[in-house]
User: Fold these one by one.
Assistant:
Number 1:
Amino acid sequence: MHTQVQSNGKAKPSGRCSGQVAVVTGGTQGIGKGIVLALLKEDAKVVFCSRSAHKGAAMMAELDELGLASGAKYLRADVGDKADVENIVEQAVSSYGRLDVLVNNAQSFNTYLSISDKPDEHFDISLRTGLYATLWAMRAAYPQMKAQGGGRIINFCSINSVTGAKYSSCYNANKEAIRGLTKTAAREWGVDNITVNVIAPAGLTEVAKTWFESTPAAAEFVKSTVPLGRTGDCEADIGALILGLASEEAGYITGQTFFADGGLFLVNALPDGVAGMEMPQ
């Protein structure tokens, strides 16, 4: 994030997204909320959604207290519904006349179960709210972005899918499908000056906070496995990467996977105790 320092020592937003219009799905909590805040603080206009009108109202009230509500528009939407997804994009364009950034963040989750026990319905839900929701939003955004001379599409995958985490087969399969879609769109739409990238984040969401507070051992375990020793801040860390990919400076970056995880992807293959040991000859 390009910032200046105010007299009180705090960072002053630079307005680097001034004039940009962004759509963020799943923008009322966790990583999505952090992204909405990051974009609004850099002077973007943001249309965001969630399934819960109550959470949407609470988010708008919070934005009003922060002096950011004038640049935000909330829509209640279920990304598992194609018409709802298309409407989000339509509302952004009709409200602000353009669409510069599309962030496909929303995703439904289900119970951790082994592959042999996973019901087909879990795969249906995961793919519909993930792969299909991402596809629908991208297709809806494409004509506008092409017509205006370009745009930024940022999707979300997961370190779980890349490493093959156990008991989340439908989620993993869905997230890898989104990575495949991202790379193909980057190839096909590059000629239209549309970049398409994907992020694998590790953000300290409300669910993670509750889990860590109730299970200190889990917090210590996570801390021990992340090289930077902490879980990412949804706004300052994940939101900052969004700002970077949405910027003019990122115009030559497309089809890439970014691990915003404090180094978690660098899974230790050997225990720390082997440092200094000689390999067998």
Number 2:
Amino acid sequence: MNLRAWFRIQLARLGRGIGIETMQEQIFEAKLLTAKVLINQMKSRGAHQSLQEVEFKVFSQFGDDGIIQYLIHAIGIPTERRIFIEFGVENYEEANTRFLLMNDNWCGLIMDGSAANIRHVQQSSLYWKHDLTAVAAFIDRDNVNSLFREHGFTGEIGLLSIDIDGNDYWVWERIEGINPIIVIIEYNSVFGWQRAVTIPYDPAFRRTQAHYSNLYWGCSLQALCLLGEQKGYAFIGCNGAGNNAYFVRKDRLGPLKINAAEEGYVESHFRESRSPLGELSYLSGDDRLHEIRNMDVYDIEQKQISKIVDVFKQ
């Protein structure tokens, strides 16, 4: 019997004759048990050729929980560095670091632009059961370092996760004062892997207001690879959903393989585009880039702002 079949049987057993809250707790316990089995399997198999081979999901949006577990065991994060920072967490029900917090007993800082989302976290049992600092802040490149210092996060940490659907490139570029071993940062697969581009910096950028399609945000994978190289990080690969890129500091690579953008790039296939009326339009492939062809991007290698249609010849 494979693990997925076993997991379905456990959930069916748990669901008989119990309340919703108890069932939710027991579902988590079943997920946790399954995750532990998968973690032991990946540890016994040593190095993997692709990050997608180790994916599993407990709290992450896609398979990032598994990738993170693989990386922290492959690298070997010292106990005193088992600290994370993640921003753009919404209400933290679905996040890259929550499994680290609950399963591995890491501590950390999370931030989100919504005060309501942060209150949700602070009022949950998660907040007293774990060493977690939750802060409401709209992050830009000018305030990110002061927010770290204000809440006592400096020096070397185990993991940094950046997901703000906009100025991700500009914020990572400016970060100093912390020295993460692992960096997870969202990229916009619509921009492909060949060109190093990002949205021009705008401290008030909001994805849902920038373009009706909801496709205009963030930066390309190549932009992140160039920035990572400047900051002393190696590109390791992407998750299977094609939205998160993984970087490891070069002095802590261990057995991990370095990839070029072309080798590690994964194209996203989720169809979240919107029409001018706000309805899902389900664009895919190159149609997504064509939809935003008249928007501006900053070409990092050319050091200039150009229209997407000109950069990509759309």
Number 3:
Amino acid sequence: MLAVLAVLVLPFLVAAAWFAWQVYEPGGDGAPVSVTVQQGWGAKEIGDELANKDVVGSSLAFQLWYRISGGSSQAGTYELHEHMGAKAATDVLGRAPSSAAASAGHTVLALPPGLRLEQIADRVGRLPGHDRAAFLALAQSGQVRSKYQGDQPSVEGFTWPDTYFVEGMSDQQILQLIVSEFDKHGDAVGLANTAATGLTPQQTVVAASLVQAEAGNAADAPKVAAVITNRLKQGTPLQIDATLCFAKGGCPPVPTNADKQLDSPYNTYRVTGLPPTPIMTVTEQSLRAALAPANVPYLFYVTGKDGVTYFATTLAEHEANIKAHGVSGE
């Protein structure tokens, strides 16, 4: 009987020991890590990011502890350490996002999602000892490359949005760091396996950048990706205003009818297919949406005055949505 009880109880003891190890990881503080919590993230997204950066050993254990302990966090960047364990990480995330690194005199490069390469160069150029033009020329030269960018000459769209400590780094080291981070996240979401969509990895990142620009929330992202995929399959121009913004060098002002006549490979009103490069940096959410678009027949969408995006399959449905809710649409 004792043997039977031992067999029954042992798995629970092992599981409890594993969970305790993950919560109170005994490895001590490792290397400093900067983690950015995006608006709308819950326990899963935070846990995945912490595990990806080795702050915790298990995303699942973190999620369990975060929920059991009533964890909460604000959107922003937090300074943590590798091998903190779930409890210590939850404690830090419960405080206000930290600006201690900047106040301590560290050189910090903050790159939020949705930046063009020129905007990244602007930020690098403001760092002590760096020059905007030199960094941009390097990023466009092909000397540093992502393994996913294919024949694309520059790393436009193939750098990862995050907050980086770049004290003493050269332009090349900074660029290699933010491109390597992109490749790491690309590996994590399975960017090498794009056969199901019929796109190359480079084209998938281009599509993800359009999703990044157009999707208002996580629920809309796979639907916007579906509109892009369906239009590509039909050979219909994508007609996405965000690509005009890229062609113009930025918005505002919002694109006009005259802008829709621009002679540019990024003018998706005149050119069929995807733009030649991504138009901005992306998040994992956008990458995952581009890799797995929703299984819906939508070809149109419009964002209404209420901030809600309405999707449609036919032009008549789309025009009805515009009339009922919207001011502009795709």
Number 4:
Amino acid sequence: MSAVTWRMERPNAKQDAVMRLRNPFIAYGGARGGGKSWLVRTWSTLMCLKKPGIKALIIRGTYSELEKNHIRPLREMTHGFARYNDQKKTLTFTNGSTIQFGYCLSEKDMERYQGGEWDLIFIDEASNIPEICIKKFIPCMRGVNDFPKRTVYTLNPGGRSHFYFKRLFVDRDFHADEDPGDYAFVQALVQDNTALKRKMPDYVKQLETLPEKLKKAWLYGEWDVFAGQFFEDFVNLPRADRVNTHVIPPFTPPAHWRIYRTYDYGYDKPFACQWWAIDNDGVMYLILELYGCGKEPNEGLHWNADKQFDEIARIEREHPWLKGKRIQGVADPAIWGKESTGMSVADTAAKHGVQFTPGDHDRLNGWAQCHNRLAFDQNGRPMMYVFEDCTAFRRTIPTLLYDENKPEDLDTDGEDHEADAWRYLCMLNPIKAPVVRQKKIVVPPMDPLELYESTRRTMRR
């Protein structure tokens, strides 16, 4: 069979638009039912037919997803002009072009792709793949030839690398080493997928019945909400009135409020130091933070303990909210373990005059206490607030996801250092969840004769 005899289903307007782009990095999707997998299969096949000898790679999270969504459909679609090698997981076209198939859900999975070269890389459902893996695929897009070089991501809001893709393709918030012209995004909704609407006319209705947060993400493609958030109850919207929000403008804490310091150690990963004020009613306020993060999310500054506590001690000597205050510290119990120097991280802190008590490391009860603090009472007020300039807390807390194997815990692969430091303080000051009293509905007693007539009508029906 030649390329001329292959009959391709006509793409919709959004699919056609994205296949015409020439940017090195292209994202497509943003909602469920946008025709993402069809795009991957069709675009990769078209390029292989058009450019003899071109090499393409299709990645999905798991092998079962890969086989169902790409290997089987593509084998059927290219029958007669491409041959599949199951051992190599490669589809070879009669003109020498190839599509290789792979899966990736962890850094260990990445080992099989290191050193590989592909002209085209398609990463389907890319937001479910860890950010570190997504970045490691970038150097694989190469080759000493004149073939076009593209990496195409199909995705929905949510997943492990949600905030990486949101930053690049939605917010377009680029780092100094990123060229905005390299990145293009085509937002596709289920309403754009004419083929799906024809085959499954009730699919939109199914999406409309989802819980509000899922509906916003999967039906409308909104990137500010997504499923799987561990702290979806954290309202990250600054308001001065302190009602129905957790983020408020800074103010000078009254002198009689208690001050706490919380700490989570990190070197290769970020360290987190927070200062909290607690008022007479037990409400916690995150007033300051020192977050040791490098250029990339979840990358440490590589400060040793001496440098960290030297800076923490300086802040407490000089900051007007902390200077001269009695500060109670609580930290990860792991910092009391001895290091190769014979000193523990806690010993180094004490050397700088920074004292801690070991935090309670009960994760599940700790997270429950965090949720108790976030809960709003019947007046719309929570038991904790965050000053709006505490940007590390506000950035990282919404990114944390549930652990797939232990849903009552969060996924520790996330950037959880601010959350851990916060958890130690919540366990030090435990509270019960606020009770929101519902209005009692008073049903007036029914007249006996009316009750009798009502019962007779029901029995007749």
